[in-house]
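Changelog note: in this version the structure field was regenerated for every chain. One regenerated record is shown below for reference.
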Amino acid sequence: MLSYRHAFHAGNHADVLKHLVLVQVIEKLKQKNKPFCYIDSHSGAGLYDLFSEYARKTGESEQGISKLVKNPTDLPAALTNYINLIDSHSRFYPGSPEIARQLLRPQDKLILMELHNNEVRNLKNNMQNDARCAIHHRDGFEGLNAIVPPEPRRGLVLIDPSYETKDDYEKTIVALTQAIKKWATGIYLIWYPMLARQRDQSNYIAEALVSLPVKSLLKIELAVSEQQEDYGMHGSGMLIVNAPYQIDTELAASLAYIKNTLAMDDKAYCQMNWLIESA
């Protein structure tokens, strides 16, 4: 299914969680001079106009990034890094490829995959012919197994499909299983939605990953409202395979701040726990 367009959802609470974590992991990798590679399995267009017809139709950014930008007081360090990057783009919200492109150094590389015809065309335009970027018009699940291990072998992968169909959950697990066998030292970030009870499969991927031979597995979730019965996304989560040292400590204050700022009712919460903790 290729109907999904992230422009409808850019800057919502799920993007805030996803991109806060992404920024902090990249900053951790940059603490060493050694080059690294960023791989994005479902890149989208890379940059989104928050005043476009798509964004205005849902208004999701107004309950997400716009609330944070309007209340920039006493921001924790990790959140400051993220907000400063977002602010530099004015009316446009940067997707994960653009966030990575802005943060990576001259010696680092980006490998971006996108299957949607219009989205990959927009992605190529938005990446401004950056020589560090390799853009592939292909299925990210299949492409990940073909690309890893990358060169350089130090780096991270972001996997964030739309989960429009239940197949995406299984495809994510298969892709990760194959990739980890070939590139066990990579950092893998997996985003997933937390949906209404009748559709929710938020524990499915985490339960599968626990059985894989990974050094560590950190689970982070942010819910901004009560879970509904039939329809809607009240929150989302991030799984970090081979999580960088002390990433949980560095994110804790920012997650609490986001929860308090974006909460829509008293059922909002954030939580972080190790499913596998490195020795």
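Spot check on this record: The first strand starts at residue 37 and ends at 40. The beta strands are 37-40, 47-49, 92-94, 109-113, 133-136, 155-159, 187-195, 217-223, 233-241, 269-276.
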